[in-house]
């Protein structure tokens, strides 16, 4: 019997666990090594004092990506998750005290748009048509293609996939595209919030982000009961069913090499795992700069310092011993001049003065994530990667955000806090080896999209591959699952070519 090939996956984030499943199905012997003591990476779960906090992602968008992933294994995701569609999808706090709830009903949303910008209802419908077209081409047909591969890019049939879309749809910036449909700042903010939460300026982000509005308005915002952590548990369980082994508390710090290949991965404390192929789910820049020997780097320090790194985040997990009246499950605080916020995110190394931010209150719809009569709150504020981080800055920033939050919801919470944890730049570095403390890897901007992203494979080591938020399609849970699928196909192609 032919000996199974051994794949080592470094990192048990969503992409690492997804590629582990795919390779196990292809008859690899797969071991995932993970520096932390639990799976999930940015999507880990924090349990404390009967609160259950999702530590990172909280929006379950593009459900078909996860459905399709499970179908690859003849499994039904609904056997793992109890998904509910949120209604309202989310609440937006706008300037001058205006608050709107985005509904699952398009007609309701048209009324909201008309109330902010008379006459915008028709344009909203046209914008959604454009968004749907973009979605169907990008997610329906291009999401699982390696747009960084020369072979894929030279494939002339790819051009057909873009039918119905103009060059300006794909390559203009998001701000320009939205300005064709909406005049007011308020409506643009409502539409562009996703990009803002990624810490990207809509002028730097590609127009193709408009496809997210189709996901948002037409498909809806879902939530797995118990929290997004349940998605990670589902993929972990699936991988275990397929025979994947896990080694936790295994922090890879070096490799052994032979013939331009990695033959084993070594941890800080001297543990060793032999490998035929290595898939890195951990931070791409950290791997290149800190784990690989210099001669095996594909990209040098200058390359990384010229890249736009995705924002970091100031995150607060709060347990509050009362119920809050003016919140929904997802809440966007977009009331202040966000151009200043973007400027401070990209041009400076200070903590943004008056940021846009997001608060998740899952206890509004799910009683299992907080003790009775309490609220589970998760604040995320995009801040620049690489910014100085120390205790006094954290305390000042926390006070600033809470004060603003209390003003907007019209209720005090500072004397009701019974659990509090801050997680920001230095924690991203310490827990994930995140380059400059980035929350999101490589920024998704016009110059770093599609074929302009970093490659799936090392140019120096024949058996080193990458998956996750640095590679195409980028950050976000669904994109990370897509990256694992693209990589799995690529590994099969590479083996067949040998
Ligand atoms: C605050 C926040 C909110 C977000 N919100 C959303 C959202 O609502 N919806 C959405 O779709 N996306 C969201 N995202 C983005 C999404 O969470 C990420 O894009 C995705 O989880 C990244 O997955 P990954 O597998 O690429 O990497 P990670 O989750 O970072 O996993 C990498 C793993 O590798 C491990 N590792 C690193 N180095 C080593 C090493 N040397 N040895 C061993 N192990 C190592 C790490 O510990 C980690 O477990 C959010 C992200 C953040 C940070």
Structure description:
The protein is α/β, with parallel strands linked by helices. The chain folds into 3 domains: 6-82 and 226-307 and 444-497, FAD/NAD(P)-binding domain (3-Layer(bba) Sandwich), CATH 3.50.50.60; 108-222, no CATH class; 308-432, Guanine Nucleotide Dissociation Inhibitor, domain 2 (2-Layer Sandwich), CATH 3.30.519. Helix content is 37%, strand content 18%. It is built from 17 helices and 19 strands. The chain has helices at residues 14-25, 63-71, 106-116, 120-142, 150-154, 157-161, 167-171, 174-179, 185-197, 211-219, 229-241, 284-291, 301-306, 338-347, 391-409, 425-432, 477-497, and strands at residues 6-10, 29-33, 45-48, 51-54, 83-85, 90-93, 99-102, 222-224, 245-247, 252-258, 261-267, 272-274, 277-280, 312-320, 330-333, 357-360, 375-383, 417-423, 464-466. The strands form 5 sheets. It has a 7-stranded mixed beta sheet, with helices on both faces. Helix 2 (63-71) packs parallel to helix 17 and helix 4 (120-142) packs across helix 10. The longest helix has 23 residues, at 120-142. It is globular and about 65 Å long. It starts with 5 loop residues before the first strand and ends with a helix. The mean pLDDT is 94. The structure holds flavin-adenine dinucleotide.
């Amino acid at each position: 019997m032919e000996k199974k090939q051994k794949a080592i996956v470094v990192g048990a984030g969503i992409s690492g666990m997804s590629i582990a499943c795919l390779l196990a199905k292809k008859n690899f012997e797969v071991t995932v090594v993970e520096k932390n003591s639990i799976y999930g990476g940015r999507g880990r779960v924090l349990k404390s004092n009967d609160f259950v906090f999702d530590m990172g992602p909280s929006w379950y968008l593009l459900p078909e990506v996860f459905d399709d992933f499970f179908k690859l294994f003849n499994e039904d995701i609904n056997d793992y998750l109890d998904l509910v569609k949120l209604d309202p999808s989310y609440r937006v706090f706008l300037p001058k005290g205006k608050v709107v709830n985005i509904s699952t009903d398009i007609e309701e949303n048209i009324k909201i748009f008309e109330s902010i910008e008379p006459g915008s209802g028709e344009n909203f419908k046209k914008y959604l048509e454009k968004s749907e077209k973009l979605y169907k081409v990008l997610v329906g047909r291009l999401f699982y293609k390696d747009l960084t591969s020369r072979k894929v890019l030279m494939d002339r049939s790819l051009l057909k996939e873009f039918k119905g879309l103009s060059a300006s749809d794909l390559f203009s910036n998001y701000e320009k595209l939205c300005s064709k449909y909406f005049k007011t700042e308020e409506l643009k903010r409502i539409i562009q919030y996703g990009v803002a939460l990624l810490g990207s300026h809509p002028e730097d982000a590609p127009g193709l982000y408009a496809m997210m509005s189709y996901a948002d308005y037409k498909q809806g915002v879902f939530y797995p009961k118990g929290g997004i952590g349940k998605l990670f548990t589902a993929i972990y369980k699936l991988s275990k069913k397929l025979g994947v082994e896990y080694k936790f508390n295994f922090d890879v710090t070096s490799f052994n090499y032979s013939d331009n290949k990695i033959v084993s991965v070594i941890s800080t404390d001297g543990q060793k795992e032999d490998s035929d192929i290595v898939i890195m789910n951990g931070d791409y820049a950290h791997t290149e700069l800190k784990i690989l020997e210099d001669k095996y780097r594909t990209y040098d320090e200058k390359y990384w310092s010229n890249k736009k790194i995705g924002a970091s985040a100031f995150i607060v997990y709060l347990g509050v011993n009362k119920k809050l009246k003016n919140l929904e499950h997802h809440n966007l605080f977009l009331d202040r001049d966000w151009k200043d916020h973007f400027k401070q995110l990209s041009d400076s190394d200070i903590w943004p003065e008056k940021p846009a931010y997001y608060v998740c209150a899952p206890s509004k719809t799910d009683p299992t994530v907080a003790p009775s009569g309490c609220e589970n709150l998760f604040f995320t504020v995009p801040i620049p990667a690489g910014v100085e981080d120390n205790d006094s800055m954290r305390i000042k920033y926390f006070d600033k955000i809470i004060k603003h939050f209390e003003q907007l919801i019209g209720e005090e919470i500072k004397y009701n806090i019974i659990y509090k944890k801050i997680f920001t730049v230095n924690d991203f570095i310490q827990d994930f080896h995140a380059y400059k403390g980035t929350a999101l890897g490589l920024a998704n901007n016009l110059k770093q999209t599609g074929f302009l992203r970093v490659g799936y494979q090392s140019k120096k080591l024949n058996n080193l591959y990458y998956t996750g938020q640095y590679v195409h399609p980028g950050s976000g849970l669904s994109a990370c699952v897509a990256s694992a699928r693209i990589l799995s196909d690529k590994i099969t192609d590479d083996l067949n070519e040998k």
